[in-house]
Predict the 3D structure of the following.
Amino acid sequence: MKEEDIRKRDVLNRYLELVGEDCEIFFRDRAGYAKSACPACASGSATHQFEKNGFEYARCSQCRTLFVRNRPPYDKLVDFYTASRSTAFWIRDFFMPMAEARRQAIFRPRADYIASRFGADPGWLIGDIGAGFGLFLEEMRASWPRCRYVAIEPSPEQAGICSKAGLTAECSTIEALRGYDARFDLLTAYELLEHLFDLRQFTEAVFRLLKPGGWFFMTTLNGEGFDIQVLWEKAKAVTPPHHLNFLNPESLEQMLVRAGFEVAEMETPGKLDWDIVEGMIRHEGTDPGRFWTLLAQQGTVEGKRGFQEWLSRNRLSSHMRVLARKPL
Ligand SMILES: [Zn+2]
């Protein structure tokens, strides 16, 4: 897979420009935002890394999570997500034109992974947290038609689209969802953790809604993954106020264990780290260091593919995936 298969460079760059402009409108008074503790381990000790769009990123001294330290209050974030120009652009110009490509490249393989991991249709109650347009649940339903599916999606527009697709749609955040305590066999959350204001409330809600023995499957960004480490403040994934939290395999596992989960699998199956860095060198004049520029210019296709596979195998890709379980 290539980065251009799932997102276009010019559209992404226009979107990031709009986000920068929206930050000036929605977060004018951010100098007054309180300094937050580490969202993963609650340690108060962290070191300054850099600023972006007026937000400060710090790295936890204990668990090495990279996070926005001057976090916008929750209601300001909700305003931003519902009313900003960049959000409207993201839905209409970024996500929608690539939706079918993303279905094939991202959501179908996830459904295949779960179906092969758990076998024949188990007739479960399955919820996707931040379900968006319902693409994952639609693909899951194609594999497991006997299961029941709940799209948990706070945006009324997107919840409406899930409902039209024949999914049960709950227009709510996971923290506010009522009537489902200890009912889900499987909850999923894709590229959501990095956005969340309060990780503790989130993991507690997931734990409460799962049956004993129920599974939690999620993906998020790894702050200790290759492209983020190499590009650091230039990484496009590092964009506030969207991406507030960059955990790593160790801090994510510790956080889930503290919330009561057993971690069954922790992997970084990402495929795009090298392509992202090479794209920045070739198309945007980024200089991440002599060696990486040499590899971009002189490396062979097989060499680059082998390097990406090595990153993925050694938990050094920035795309992280975890399967955890609420104990029986
Ligand atoms: Zn920490």
